[in-house]
Amino acid sequence: MATWEYATVPLITHATKQILDQWGEDGWELVQVVPGPEGSTNLVAYMKREKG
Residue 44: CB partners within 8 Å, gap ≥ 6? Predict the structure, then answer.
């Protein structure tokens, strides 16, 4: 059975694509994007990748 590790990544709105591309190159898969802490204009990405 696969085991996973997870990360939360703050996304800066003007660099979202570059941030996600970099994490993707490191083997991370985007699971979900949610609004940041209350009052923040940024987003938070939840990522996962298989442990190995």
Answer: 8, 9, 10, 11, 33, 34, 35, 36
